[in-house]
C-alpha cells in the first residue's frame, strides 16, 4: 500500500490544475451564448447569464466577497464585491450583476478600496476579535477578506451594541453531535440558509429578525439544531465563512494539515471526499467539489459518521476456535491463515470441491472482491461464489441484461438535471441516497414533474417546495401489475414512440408485448382494485410519463426485493423502450444501489454463474481466457447462490464458507433458517471490522480494514469507478486482498500481486468493459464510467446511445403473478422494510457513531386506524408475528402508511426484523422478498422469545480468551 | 431444513420460473425454462431435481415439468 502524499489530479473534464478547480468562483456556472467583456483590461468570454464576479474570477481577477459562493445563487447582501462599470453610475455588486457584451469592468481602485474598507469595518465592529483562539483561525473568510481589503483599524470601537460580549452573547448551540452554532460570530451572510435550500433542499434554516436583531435560526418552532428539520448534511457548515457554524472536530483538534481524496464507503451514490488529516487522524471529511457523483455535497453519513473506523469495538487481531461454543483464541496472522487453509482443504478432500465456497462483499473494493472470487474459482476449484448483492439488486442484473443487454443503470446522476418527468418506484432517495436525493429535489424545484409509486408516503411526496404530481400508493407486491397498467394506457392511447421502437427494438417481441399489455385485464380499471390505486390516477400518471418530455425511472429495493423483482425490472425497461426514454440525457432506467460497491462487486464476477463483466461460466471462449491467465482449469457449471448455500449447508453437502465483510446473519431473511445453516457448517471464516452477528457462528475471524485503509476502487450506481485511497495504515497490519492471497497460496494456488494497481491491471486484461481502466489513469484523469474500452476510451456516462448493448431491445411479457405471501385472517397486515438516513444497512458502522442519536432503535410504523383497532398507542411495545417468527418493536403511529401496511427498518440486530421475514424470493435470482411479509401486530409488554435468547447467547459467543488476548 | 422442505423449495422455484415463461408460445417457454435451469442451478440442485422427477415429480406444474425434463433428462450434465 502506498500512502498518497499528493492530491492526485482528477480533472479531465475541467482541464484545470487541481488548485484552480477548487477555487470558489462566487456564483454558479451558466449555460448560454458567449458574451465578451473586459475586466481590468483583460478580455474574457463567458456564457450569457454569468455574473461579473464569476467572469472576473475566470480572468484571474478575484473580487473580494463574503456572501457569495459558486454552489448557491447570489444574494447581494455584504456589498464587499462592488465594482465600477464604465458608463454605469454607482458601484453595483458584482455577484448579482450579469455580464453584458462589451462591458468594461474595474475591480480595484482607490474608491472601491475605500468603500470595501468601510464595509469590513462595520462587520468587524460587531465581531469578536479572538482570532487566535477561534476554531477556524486560518480558515476564515472574514479574516481573509479583512486582510484582502487592508483593514487596519475599526473606528467605531468594539464596545457599541454587539452580539459577542458577556452581556449579549447567547449560548453556543451544541445540540448537533457533529457541529455547533455560535451566533456571536455570525455575519448574517445567509450562505448557510441558501446552502440548506439550494444544495441540500431541506429548508431548515431561516434568517429571523431584522436589521441588527437578525440571526440564523433552525426553524421557527424548534429551539436548537437537533430538534429542527435539519438532517445534518453539513452543507451549511461548509458554506459558513466564519466560525459560526463549525465542526466540533475542528473545535477540538484544530485545522487539518494534509488531505487525501477518497470515496465514501456508505451508499451507492459514491461521493468523493477530501479526508482532511492531522498525522494519521482525520479531523474532517469534506465532500470534494470535483467528485463526479456529488460535486461538493454529502450527507450525514459520509461527512460525519467515520468514527466507526477507529471504534474500540474493532477487532485488530486474527482469532480462531475449534467450536463456536469455545471462547475466541487470538493468534497471529500466520496461524489464522494456516488454520483457515488447512480446514478448507480438509473439507474439500473429504466432501469434494463443491463443499466449500464464499460470499463477497459490496463494501469491499473491486480489487478485494476480485481476488476473493478468483480464490474461490481457482483455489477452491468451484463457482460457489455469491455476493450480498444477491439480497438486493440481483434482479436488476437479470432484468436489464435480458431486455437491454447489460446489467447496469443507463444514466449518470447528472442526467437528472435534464429530466422533465421523474418516476420514483420503491426507492426513498432522500433517506437512502441522500446526495442524489438532493440533486433530484433541485430538479423538481425547477419544475420537473414527479410520480412516486410507493406504499408509503415517503418524504419526496411532500417536502418543502416539492409535491409529487401523483403518488401511486400501491399495495406491496403489486409492482408488476402497476407497470402493466401504465403500459396498457401507453399502448392503447397511442402513446408509443413508434419510430424509436421500430429503429431500436426487436419487433416480434414488441408486438407480442403490445398485444399482451393491451388485453383488457391489464387496464387500469381492471387492476385498480388489486393495486389500491384509482384508475384515473393510473391513466394520468401513464400519460404524464409518456408525454411529459424526458422521463426517467429511478428505483430501489422496493422493486427488486419481491418475488417478481426480475419481472418488474423488465417491465420498467419495457416502459422506457416503448416511450423512447432511453439512450440520451434526462431519461433512462436507474437502480439506486444500496451499499457503496454493489455495482462493483457484481461487475467483478461475484455471481456463481458469471465471470467479471457478466459472462457466463459455461461460455467456453471466455472461460479459456481466464484459464490461460490464471493457469488452472475452471469449472463450467454454475455454483451455489446464497440461499442455495444455506439449503446445502442444512443437507450436509456444503460445509465451509468464507464471508468477506458482510453480516449475513443479520441482513438475510428468515434469521432462524440462516443461523441454523451457519451452525451446521464445519468451518465459517469471517473477515470483518467487528465481531458481527455472523461471527457468532465463525471458527476463524480475520480482522478487516476500513475504507480509510484501503487502496483500490469502488464503482457507484452510475457505473463510476472511483478511487479509494488510504489515509492511514492498516490498523490490523494486513490488507484484505493480501490475506486472501495468502490463504489461496496456503491452499496450493499462489496469487501474487505487488499492489492493488496490479490487480486492476489483471481485471482490465480479462474484462472487455474495463479494458482501458487502470489506477494510473484514474489518478491522472479522474473517475470514469464503464464501459471504458476501445469504443469508449473515456468511459460512458450514458449507455445505449447508438443502440442497445444486446443489439435490438427486447420487450418481455410481464405477467403479474401475485406472491404466495398473502395477508389472511391470521396475518392481516403486510410488513414492508426500508431504511433511514442516519443509519446504514445492518448499522454495524453507523451504530458506532453519534448517528445513533437520530435513530436509537428500529420501530414499527403503523396506520392510526390499524393501531386503534388493536389498542396500540404511539410508543407502545408491539409483537409482530409472521408465519416464521416473532419479534417485538415499539410502535410509531403514522399516517405515512396506508391502512393494512406496516413498516420497519432493520438497522439494529436486537430488532430481529429478519426473524419474521420469510424465505420467499425472486423467481429468477432468488433475491429474497423482504418487501412483503404477512404479519399480525399485537400489543405486548416484553421482548420476543428470540430477542431474549439473543440477549443471553450473543455476548457468550463473542467471548475472547482473555489470558492470551492481545490488547 | 429437511430433505423434504429442500425439495419443496426446488419445486416452488421451478414453478415460479415456469409461471414467468407461461405467456410465451409453448416450445419457446419450454426452451427458456430449460435454459434458465441450466444457467442458474448448481449441479446438486439439478441432481436433487432429477431425483424428484424420478420419484414422480410431485407438485410440479405441467410446464415446469416439461422445462425440467428438457433440461435434466435424458442427459443430466452432472
Ligand atoms: S446541516 Fe444540512 S440540513 Fe442541517 S441546517 Fe445545515 S444545510 Fe440544512
Ligand atoms: S451562520 Fe455562517 S453562513 Fe450562516 S449567516 Fe451566519 S456567518 Fe453566514
Ligand atoms: S452515504 Fe452516500 S450520499 Fe452520503 S456521503 Fe456517502 S456516498 Fe454520499
Ligand atoms: S459577495 Fe456580492 S454582495 Fe456579498
TrEMBL record, chain A:
The keyword Ligase does not apply. GO terms for molecular function: 2 iron, 2 sulfur cluster binding; 4 iron, 4 sulfur cluster binding; formate dehydrogenase (NAD+) activity; metal ion binding; molybdopterin cofactor binding; NADH dehydrogenase activity. The keyword Iron-sulfur applies. NCBIfam families: Fdh-alpha (TIGR01591). It comes from the Bacteria. One of its GO terms (biological process) is formate metabolic process. Residues 111-150 form the 4Fe-4S His(Cys)3-ligated-type domain. Residues 257-313 form the 4Fe-4S Mo/W bis-MGD-type domain. Pfam families: Fer2_4, Fer4_7, Molybdop_Fe4S4, Molybdopterin, Molydop_binding, NADH-G_4Fe-4S_3. In the C-terminal section; belongs to the prokaryotic molybdopterin-containing oxidoreductase family. One of its GO terms (cellular component) is membrane. Its EC number is 1.17.1.9. Gene3D superfamilies: 2.40.40.20, 3.10.20.740, 3.30.70.20, 3.40.50.740, ADC-like domains, Dimethylsulfoxide Reductase, domain 2. Residues 177-208, 221-250 form the 4Fe-4S ferredoxin-type domain. SMART domains: Molybdop_Fe4S4 (SM00926), NADH-G_4Fe-4S_3 (SM00929). InterPro entries: 2Fe-2S_ferredoxin-like_sf, 2Fe-2S_ferredoxin-type, 4Fe4S_Fe-S-bd, 4Fe4S_Fe_S_CS, Asp_de-COase-like_dom_sf, Formate_Dh-H_N, Formate_DH_asu, MoPterin_dinucl-bd_dom. PANTHER family: FORMATE DEHYDROGENASE H, RESPIRATORY NITRATE REDUCTASE. Keywords: 2Fe-2S, 4Fe-4S, Iron, Iron-sulfur, Metal-binding, Oxidoreductase, Repeat. Residues 33-111 form the 2Fe-2S ferredoxin-type domain. It comes from Amaricoccus macauensis. It is an enzyme of class 1 (oxidoreductase). This is Formate dehydrogenase major subunit.
Automatic annotation (TrEMBL), chain B:
This is Formate dehydrogenase subunit delta. GO terms for molecular function: formate dehydrogenase (NAD+) activity. Keywords: Oxidoreductase. Its EC number is 1.17.1.9. It comes from Amaricoccus macauensis. It is an enzyme of class 1 (oxidoreductase). It comes from the Bacteria.
